[in-house]
């Protein structure tokens, strides 16, 4: 009988931060997705291989993978990722969209002509941008909160634009990275004074190499 070998990879718990501290804000969600995805495919009869950061090896006892390969501190996870892709018939990739991480890993799977069971490249490209996703919703007549790309003035976000949109929307707003994940760098403002006060020190927290969006706040 043909064995269905699948490589399931989750970036945060699978060694993607082998050269850095594992960010707790992303780890809990990432590991939970890895564990449940492995369990689902195990119930379907797949033989599962995955990668796990050596610093959290003790969590391997809670995973139903058949093969768990460690990624050691300072090791290049990508080499093991590629080896696992080549040794499997199917692949399922879970990774952040920022810095094209998910896109590039998915591209490796496609390049090796493996059966990709996670989202394809077109979906990754669309989902990696909140602005492009918003445009997609509008084009398909789906309702979505008002959203604007914030322009830059020099190397800082255009404060005049933000204040103008705040007045136009006449409600609370949220500012966040266009490619943000795990609720990172989300800033909520109810009053104009809060916006002005924030931008007095925003250079300390905002990465000017990334795009930011302004969105109407929807209570829920």
UniProtKB/TrEMBL annotation:
Domain Tyramine--L-glutamate ligase pre ATP-grasp, residue spans: 47-117
MF (Gene Ontology): ATP binding; metal ion binding
- Stored InterPro entries: ATP-grasp_PylC-type (IPR003806), MfnD_preATP-grasp (IPR040803)
> Which Gene3D superfamilies does the record match to this protein?
3.40.50.11770
Residues in ATP-grasp fold PylC-type domain copies: 128-220
Specify one Pfam family.
ATP-grasp_3
Q: What is this protein called?
A: ATP-grasp domain-containing protein
Protein species of origin: marine sediment metagenome
């Amino acid at each position: 009988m043909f064995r269905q070998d699948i490589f399931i990879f989750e970036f945060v718990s699978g060694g993607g931060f082998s050269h850095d501290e594992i960010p707790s804000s992303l780890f809990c969600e990432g590991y939970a997705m890895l564990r449940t995805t492995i369990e689902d495919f195990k119930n379907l009869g797949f033989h599962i291989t995955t990668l796990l950061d050596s610093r959290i090896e003790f969590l391997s006892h809670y995973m139903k993978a058949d093969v768990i390969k460690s990624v050691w501190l300072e090791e290049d996870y990508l080499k093991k990722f590629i080896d696992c892709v080549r040794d499997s018939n199917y692949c399922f990739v879970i990774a952040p969209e920022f810095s094209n991480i998910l896109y590039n890993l998915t591209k490796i799977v496609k390049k090796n002509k493996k059966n990709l069971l996670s989202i394809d490249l077109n979906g990754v490209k669309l989902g990696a941008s909140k602005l492009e996703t918003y445009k997609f919703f509008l084009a398909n007549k789906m309702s979505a909160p008002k959203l604007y790309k914030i322009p830059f003035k020099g190397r800082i976000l255009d404060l005049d634009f933000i204040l103008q949109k705040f007045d136009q929307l006449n409600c609370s707003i949220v500012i966040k990275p266009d490619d943000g994940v795990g609720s990172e760098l989300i800033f909520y403002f109810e009053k104009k004074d809060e916006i002005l006060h924030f931008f007095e020190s925003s250079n300390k927290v905002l990465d000017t190499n990334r795009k930011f969006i302004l969105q109407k706040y929807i209570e829920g």
